[in-house]
Amino acid sequence: MTLYARLRPYAFRLPAEMAHEASKGLLRVAGATRPSRAALERVYRYDHPALEIDLFDTTFPNPVGVAAGFDKDAEVMGGLAALGFGFVEVGTVTPGPQSGNRKPRLFRLAEDRALVNRMGFNGAGADAVAERLAAGRPEIPVGANVGRMNAAGEEEAIEDYRRVFARLSPYPDYFVVNVSCPNTPETFDESSPEHLERVFGTLQAENDADEPILVKIGPDATAEGIGELVEIAESHGIDGIVATNTASDREGFDLESTNRKEWGGLSGAPLEERSTRVVRTVASHTDLPVIGVGGVDSAESAYRKIRAGASLVELYTAFVYEGPTVAREINRGLVSLLHRDGFSSVEEAVGADL
Ligand SMILES: Cc1cc2nc3c(=O)[nH]c(=O)nc-3n(C[C@H](O)[C@H](O)[C@H](O)COP(=O)(O)O)c2cc1C
């Protein structure tokens, strides 16, 4: 039993958001100095040449990243790098600071190894994040997930995305436009083709430096909707798709925990199959790179997303349930799975099931 597995029952006595803040506090301290990062790296980092991936003009040391929402304000990137993650996606970053929804807004579904959240884009805003990124970047690639203020209508939303993008450039290695958050007020249809056309057009008009811009979609997208989105993304020179966000619709999930009744986005193990299906559908429509996210909690689940077409994977919920060894264990296991199946690298296994 890992040390984390022994400590977890105590951590789980705290309200979920408080436990999250406490773990970020530890990561902030542990990631603050070179010697403490080096000490963490010795325990948690697992390097292997088969895990390296070149994408978006940068090298990812391994394909296992931290999903958006964990480090919204770019506070613990160094600590996450020292825990062996291959990259971190900060955000969602909104143009100004925002407090998000009323607490409680994060719930554990322990029996289901899942979470429900309705955080509602709480964060310090683009200026604070830009200053942190400018002050120092971790040794791993950083993505920035771009969002809008909760009160924004359609016109303001487009301007919000543009402002955050302009403020954060050129610091991140890639950007993600988040048009799939299920727990911000629905003032308009964020996934309509007309809206997406305008968002992508506006961002690309601002994108003189040709920064990689990706779009993040939800797990409930239909094959037809995905086909349409991919077409729009390709016609605007979008560089990749992140699949998927959390699920707002509980239809088809067999959940046991009492917290299943809370409204918000469902993440974790129950989402794995659905998000992998979306990865596969996206990858079968396009050669654009896909970042697979949703229920990745083991080498096997990461490998399923890679074989379904994901070049990189991300996780959030498994960090809560598996603890700080999660990246190391997934990466170590991936090397064995690649070896078993005769692949010399992750890159070779991408889309093997298509
Ligand atoms: C507490 C929490 C907050 C999140 N916040 C964001 C966010 O701000 N932006 C975003 O794009 N996704 C956000 N997500 C979704 C994750 O990035 C990811 O898409 C989803 O949780 C599925 O991955 P998982 O099963 O590994 O958690 C959040 C998820 C959780 C659990």
Overview of this protein structure:
It is a single chain. This protein is of the alpha/beta class and 354 residues long. The chain has one domain: Aldolase class I (TIM Barrel, Alpha-Beta Barrel), CATH 3.20.20.70. It has helices spanning 3-11, 16-30, 34-44, 77-82, 126-135, 154-168, 193-206, 223-235, 272-285, 299-307, 317-322, 326-340, 346-349; strands spanning 53-55, 58-60, 64-66, 87-93, 106-109, 114-117, 142-146, 174-178, 213-217, 240-243, 265-268, 290-293, 310-315. Helix 10 (299-307) crosses helix 12 (326-340). The longest helix is centred in the first third of the chain and has 15 residues, at 16-30. It binds flavin mononucleotide. Flavin mononucleotide binds at residues 67-69, 72, 91-92, 106, 115, 117, 119, 145, 178, 181, 216, 245-246, 267-268, 271, 293-296, 315-318.
Structure described in brief:
The chain has helices at 3-11, 16-30, 34-44, 77-82, 126-135, 154-168, 193-206, 223-235, 272-285, 299-307, 317-322, 326-340, 346-349; strands spanning 53-55, 58-60, 64-66, 87-93, 106-109, 114-117, 142-146, 174-178, 213-217, 240-243, 265-268, 290-293, 310-315.
